[in-house]
Known about the structure:
With 236 residues, this protein is mainly alpha-helical. The protein has three domains: 2-97; 112-184; 198-235, no CATH class. It contains seven helices and four strands, in the order αααααααββββ. The strands form two sheets. It has a two-stranded antiparallel sheet with strand order 1-4. It has a two-stranded antiparallel sheet with strand order 2-3.
Amino acid sequence: MTSKTTGTGMEAAELASLRRRLAEACENLSIIEEKKSLYVMEVDIPPQLIKRERRLKRKIAELEQRIAGLEAAAATAAEAAGEQAPSTAPPDPASATTPSACHRPETEDCYSRYEIGLRRLLEQLGADHPRYSEALTYQHRLIENIEQVRRHGDTETLRAERSRIIEQLNRFALEEVDTPFNDLCKAVPDQPSHLPPTVLIPAGPFWMGSYPDGADAHDNERPHRKVQFPAYQIGR
């Protein structure tokens, strides 16, 4: 009786440990999936991130199988002892290890999205922006990478380089136009026909608020300060 109790206690402790490890692995997988969502196209996700995701999925499948095996053994022991225990079917490991594929039509040039994003970024910055030349450098690097892919095909080296450029562009665009570069690359829905045509107002500074000597100014109109606005569209 003592040996059975000891064995049951050890199995319970092992189950608890495996479940903790499974919860940690699932949490890490969620973090990786969140990082992957920052990329517009799957081909531009850093290879190291994909490898980590695959390792975690294999680990999760292995932990789930071990947990299911221990639960099944506990259920068998409970039934043999005349107790009622729920049966647990082992999970299908293929469902956890098979990564989702990104299917695209062969005729689609997926890299044109980045070209659109670059144009939008430059339009929103405006040629007078102090970091406009830096944006042009990013544009040159990314376009050169895309042209090499179009001429010679994609490689792991080109993918890694493109991922680095896009990460830098995401930070740059977020700092300067308050929008990640990947969002600038996304398709914009057609403008409804009943709306008036719009014109782009480039990003730039303007002075906001009343002057210190403004006698009629309210408290919420002070101080007189310089504000940086992102680019926006306004009706003609």
